[in-house]
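Here comes an entry:

___
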Amino acid sequence: MAVRSVRARELTRSRFKANPYPFYARLRAESPVCRVAAFGFRAWLVTRYDDVVAMLQDDRLSNDISSRMPWIPRFTRPLTEHLLNRDPPDHTRLRKLVTRAFTPSRVEALRGRVTSLCEQLLEPGGRHGRMDLVEGYALPLPITIISELLGVPEAGRRRFHALSRSVMRIGAPSRLADVTLTLPDAWRLIRFFRRLFAERRARPADDLLSALIQAEEDGDRLSERELLAMVVLVLLAGYETTVGLIAGGVLALLENPEQRAAFVEGGVSGRTAIEELLRYTSPVEITMPRIAREEVRIGPVSVGRGEIVAAVLGSANRDESRFREPDRLDLTRDPNPHLGFGNGRHFCLGATLARMEAELALTLLFRRFPEMRLARPAATLRWRELLPMRSLDELPVSLR
């Protein structure tokens, strides 16, 4: 019998996140556009590659769904009013402003810093022979880099990290209770950034936050509300996704010894390896939802005006109609038209930074610890219970 509907909560459980792909394969075959129940209303999940691409490029689907997110308190609205939830012309204007500050040259200039930080973070593991690669490596690397890029003072980074991780649940919680629990932290994070904005306006520095404050196009600048939303987006693009990619990439290589050997011995290029790990692990599993401005045909389903849809990137990246042997990790796969960073106008702003961080992190890790292995069975690992993300909560390894 075909799957008729699914509850969002079921898609967030750790045991589901560990291996969602058999279920997604079933959806592609039986119910490629499937009903999902979430937060008091029903939406559609789109699972086939071609349907996902068409959906992400369809102007009849709006990203501005704030009116359908009643669980978000008014004071936290700026945290969700970022580029991923905006349509043209606002999206066009805001992306042009932030792109001028988030340049490839600014990202490339971080290569040396990323390398030295990776080596620094691996030192304790070298001494002790064991470490949790999420807590000790995959997490502190991108949060440190994004903190430095934004200009968050070192003294405030621990608090910044804790608040940031907490409020990630507001835009797409796995259950409504998550919103209530994170409201105090959301208020603290807003206050944290507003104080930092005031400092940077008074004393600009050589960091992304100062560049965003000063960014201007035809006399147009970011408002305080837009600036806050943009910083939250930079967090999402440059931090949470990268944690999932690094940790998930390590696990994938440990579970595929032949591919790991090719990676360690230099038998594959770092570029193609990272693209395949993005496809295979899909750290951004489900896109932000969109709302139909008018009736839209998606695959076999007619989505009515006002209905909500979301694309399952994790399913599209394993679609057998697009990828040969999709469930096999192949670091030489080329071309590799994966959707790990989305598609269309909302393609991830932090893609260049995430790719660079992940390639350096994995290369330096396996070069230093070629005998690394899991400290306990993969089936016992905890995964973060966030609907849009697929990211390990822990990854204990033995390094000798």
The longest strand covers residues 33-38. The chain is about 50% helix and 10% strand. The longest helix spans residues 224-254. The domain at 5-398 is CATH 1.10.630.10 (Cytochrome p450).
